[in-house]
Structures are given as structure tokens and as C-alpha cells.
Amino acid sequence: MTPEEILQGLYDETLVGNAPRVLELTNEALGMGMEPQNLLFDALIPSLEEVGARFERGDFFVPEMLIAGRAMAGSMEVLRPLLAETGVQTIGKFLMGTVKGDVHDIGKNLVNIMLEGAGFEVIDLGVQVAPEKFVEKIQEHQPDIVGFSAFLTTTMPMFKANMNALQKAGLRDQVIVMVGGAPVTQEYADAVGADGYAADASATVKKAKDLLQRKRALVSA
Amino acid sequence: MSAPRLETVLRSATKEVVIGHDRRFCIIGERINPTGRRIFQEQLRAGDLSAIERDVKAQVEGGADVLDVNMGVPLTDEPELLAKAIQMVQELTDLPICIDSSVVEALEAGLSVYQGRALVNSITAEDDRMELILPLVKRYDAAVIALPNDAEEIPMEADRRLELVGHVVEVATKEYGIAAADIVIDPLAMPIGSDTATALTTFDTMRRIREEHGLNMTCGASNVSFGMPDRHTLGAAFLPMAMMSGLTSAIMDARTPQIVDAVKAADLLLHHDEWGGSWIAAHRRRQAAAGA
């Protein structure tokens, strides 16, 4: 296969969630001496972007998104150590968790897939994450962005509790806060003092990139 | 030996509805709920409850036996809103109500104005939730929905769900004096789109709850089809399978004839509709409506 055929194959097979084939193609490409970042930025990420766009349009459904994410994750397991060696930077570090009292994670997991697909390093704390745990993990991982997810109107008030905990720990100014989940609105995000809100997985990626860019511009200015 | 099959009695001021294993399936109409409905939320925030009237009418006409009322609007006084909504719904219909909130004060406000015997939605197997809510259930002589999940997780194995059901029943009956018949278990119907083995676990859980505890069960039926195309078809297939496994009620949208009709057909096939009286009557009503 030519490098072009490999890239096209990776794109197509990721799109349909064919994990074994994606892994094969990844290994074949590396065997031919192709660069890991080449595979990531010219095949895997564009493919996941297409998955997200189709999902947003209602052409793709939850299982298709999950298997595409899994196919990409399989390839990333091989690529991640190589990318680290070559010093390729992720575009940012995203710490994610469902708030305390809430065990819903499907939406959050979809967002994680799209964020990884866009080049973020995602650290997922899972569900039922208490404010103290967010604080502890922010100190440990130093993420650029932290995401709070809530699926219930009754667990949304945990956003505010998390914000207070960040404030108290003196972390509020060093991390961007995004909130999301089915019942969450822009208005509510504003009310709790979050930096960003997005309605779905693709919108989260755009918003996260946008917030990150603004913050970096501010820092370098 | 299998446990005796229990009956859960709900009442409004004038009407009684019984949930049970040998009875017609109980449809708990779910749409009196502002979650995800922006305009409705804004109206409620402004104190305008008029949309409730339309929602109640649609659920009643669709064949609901009980109405779920949820007033979870962020940034409002939920206890006050829920109490108002319940009074309003009780003026509009004689169906019993399922009072739906995880804000304890809202549940209490709702129970304090409710006339009859309500169903409280819901508790989990977490001791702190039970400690807050079960005394209210006892004081107001209500029934309660219990979810077999704890602070850590929604268990994906039937064994663990059964353990948690056992824990809830033990605590509710022994520590709070609530009758087992008044505990309605939600065996947790998860989205089929995120794991295509999940409904099998749910059916297995249902069979074992019926066999080991004889309890009534309910579930959020629309959750099953989340993220999938042709959601109504999935709902119409899921519910009869769940009924066969022991589900005796569901929180569902009664406005969807495809799903309601599937439930009615399953009632007939499971011998919950003797001589097909309800099935035939529904046919005549449709005929009359078409001829009118």
C-alpha cells in the first residue's frame, strides 16, 4: 500500500469503527516508516471529526460513535508512546468528570472521544466525582481545562459546589472551567460562573479550543 | 419457593390504581416535566403553569393510569413550584400522581399538598438518601420507587443489583416500617445503544426481583432507545419483553400510540386482560372516533 492508501484506509476504517483493521493499518504504516503524527493528524483526527459531524447531523448514532472512538483508541495505544518520544505536544490537557451524586456517563464519554479525537489529552475521573477529588486531581495533573458533567437538574448545583472548592483551593484562576450535560444551559453555566458551556460533543471541542486559544493569547500578550 | 407477588395501591382523592403482577400494566405518564424543554422552563420560572394543562390532557387521553410530575427547573424554588403543580394536576384529573424530585424539600412540599396515596420518585440504595426520604414516605403513607444503585456506580451485573434491592427492602421495612408492597423497584433500563447486552441484564434482574421478592417494578422506558434511530419501535419491543420478565409499570410517554398499543397487546397475551375486554373496547373507541 502507498502512504496515501494507508491514510485513506485509516480514515475509512476508523469511521466505520473497524478496530482490528485500524490497528493493522497503524502497525503497517509504522513498519513502512510513516510518522506517528502523520497518522494522527492526517487520518485519525479528521475521521473522528467526521464522526462528530455526522452525529451532530443525526446521521450517526451512539453505537457508531462509540465503536469509532474505540477503533481510534486502539491505534492511539500504539501511537501515544511514539508521539511522546518525538515530542509532539497534545493541544491541551482536559480533566473530565461527572459530578457527585450523578452516575450518568454516556454523554461525558462521547465528549471524551471527541476531545481525544481533536488532539486533547483527556484524563477521565469517571462518575460521582466529589469537589475535593476535582481539587486533588487538578493539583496532580495541572490540566488546562476541567469539565463538570451533570445529567440531572438535581445534581447541577454541584457545579457551584465544585467552583467554590476550586476557589477555596486557589485554583480557580489557573484552570478553565467548562460545564455540560442534558439539562444544562448557557444561562445556568453563566449563573455558576463557568467559563464555557457546550450543548453537545462537537460543540464542546470547538468551545474548548476557542477558550484555550483565548487564554493563551491573553498569557502571551 | 418463589416470593408472594405484591400489590401496590395508589390513590388520588377519588380514584384507586393498583399496580400488580396479575393486573393490567400501569402506565405512568411522564411528560409533566420541564427537563430539556426550554419554553416550558421559562414559563414556569415566570410563574406560568398553563402548559401543564395541555400535558396532562395529552397523557390522560393517551391512556396514562398515573401521572409523573417533575418540576426540576434550575434556579427556581422547586418545592413551591412542585406543590403548586401537584395541586393543579389534581384539579385537572383524578389520576394518582408520582411525585418526582430528588430534592427532599420538594418531595415533602409535594406530599404535604397531595390528596390520596402518592408514589414517590425516588430513592437509591444509598443510606443517606433513604434516611432523608423514607420517613416522609412513612409519614404521608405513600409508596416509593427505589433504584438499585449506590454512591459508587450503577451496577452492570444482575447479582449486584439484587444485593442492593435486598438492602433497600431490609432497611425500608425493618428500620422505617414501610410495607414491602409499597416499594417499587426500578431495575435500571440502560440505553441499548451504549451496550447491546444491557437489556439482557435488565430482564434477568426483573425475573429475579419477581421471583425472590415479588415486588412491583417500574422503569424509565424511553431511556432504552436513547441515541438510536426509530426509538418508538424499540420502546414497543422492549416493554412487552420486560412485562414478560416481571415489569409491572413504566414511566413513559402515553402520547405514543405505537408503544401504548404494544403494552395493551402484551397485557392481553399475558392474561392481564380477561376475554380481551380492554383490547376490544380500545378498538371500538378508535372505530367510533374514526366514524365521528
Automatic annotation (TrEMBL), chain B:
<keyword id="KW-0808">Transferase</keyword>
<dbReference type="Pfam" id="PF00809">
    <property type="entry name" value="Pterin_bind"/>
</dbReference>
<dbReference type="GO" id="GO:0050667">
    <property type="term" value="P:homocysteine metabolic process"/>
</dbReference>
<dbReference type="InterPro" id="IPR011005">
    <property type="entry name" value="Dihydropteroate_synth-like_sf"/>
</dbReference>
<comment type="similarity">
    <text>Belongs to the vitamin-B12 dependent methionine synthase family.</text>
</comment>
<keyword id="KW-0489">Methyltransferase</keyword>
<keyword id="KW-0846">Cobalamin</keyword>
<dbReference type="InterPro" id="IPR050554">
    <property type="entry name" value="Met_Synthase/Corrinoid"/>
</dbReference>
<dbReference type="GO" id="GO:0008705">
    <property type="term" value="F:methionine synthase activity"/>
</dbReference>
<dbReference type="GO" id="GO:0046653">
    <property type="term" value="P:tetrahydrofolate metabolic process"/>
</dbReference>
<protein>
    <submittedName>
        <fullName>5-methyltetrahydrofolate--homocysteine methyltransferase</fullName>
        <ecNumber>2.1.1.13</ecNumber>
    </submittedName>
</protein>
<keyword id="KW-0479">Metal-binding</keyword>
<dbReference type="GO" id="GO:0005829">
    <property type="term" value="C:cytosol"/>
</dbReference>
<dbReference type="GO" id="GO:0032259">
    <property type="term" value="P:methylation"/>
</dbReference>
<dbReference type="InterPro" id="IPR000489">
    <property type="entry name" value="Pterin-binding_dom"/>
</dbReference>
<dbReference type="GO" id="GO:0046872">
    <property type="term" value="F:metal ion binding"/>
</dbReference>
<feature type="domain" description="Pterin-binding">
    <location>
        <begin position="25"/>
        <end position="270"/>
    </location>
</feature>
<dbReference type="GO" id="GO:0031419">
    <property type="term" value="F:cobalamin binding"/>
</dbReference>
<keyword id="KW-0170">Cobalt</keyword>
